[in-house]
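Hi V.,

You were right to ask for the full record rather than a summary. Here it is.
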Amino acid sequence: LWVIEADESDRSLLQFEPDWAVITNISKDHFELDEVTALFRRFAGRARRGVVGCFGEPPAEKLLAGFAPRLTAQGALFQHRGEEYAVPLLGRHNAENALEAVALCLRLGLEPATIRNALAGFRGIERRLEPAGTAAGISVIDDYAHNPAKIRAALTALAPYHGRILAAWRPHGYGPLALMKDELLAMFAETLRPPDILFVLPVFYAGGTARRAFTSGEFVEALRARSLRAEYAPDFDAMENRLARQAQAGDAILVMGARDPGLPAFARRLVSAIARRVPGAPGQACP
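Predicted structure:
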């Protein structure tokens, strides 16, 4: 059994003809939403045996009908076809992903008990709400979130268990920021709670001819115009100083962004910075 993550950003997913296709969600990213949707419809049509999805098409709506996972600080509990399953990951989006995995495994002939045991032992993957460590009662989490849907999922997964979220975000390109700025602004306005603060790093730039039509500083100003708490941090050092100084016990620091390979190390560096700020405070970075 081969499991492959196919990528829509370069349309390479259309090079595959899988037996089964699993489509977890469709949202605006890389292209306008109608173009992304058309691309995934073409991909779904290439699956030889069937499609499992939670992405708004009729088959997905049937799968999600009545889906009401019980979300806790330890993960999610849900039922499917009379069986109960638990996955030790935060957030409804992870519960939906687990539901899709269960649905496909049942179609492949696996027994519910086998699926249940595998789910219970699953600890997630790198940079998907990955714990970076804790210090002085402050949790630091690293996530690949970079578009409105993924950022919303990460923030809403953490919010019930932390009095405040300090979100550190690096936009992953000038083109994507310009393409999605309206949706990003609306999402942050709907998702950030009054105590939460968003810290924005400069747009990640890996070279090329990208038009710098909209910057992180301008984005922060647009957020403030909506009465949101947002700050621009010109580099990692400035971001570290602000987060270490402002974070309090019970807070979560959520580091988000794609492309920049320095973000995971920065998340772990924050744990050490917070521990140094509070002498004698326990601090443990995750390996």
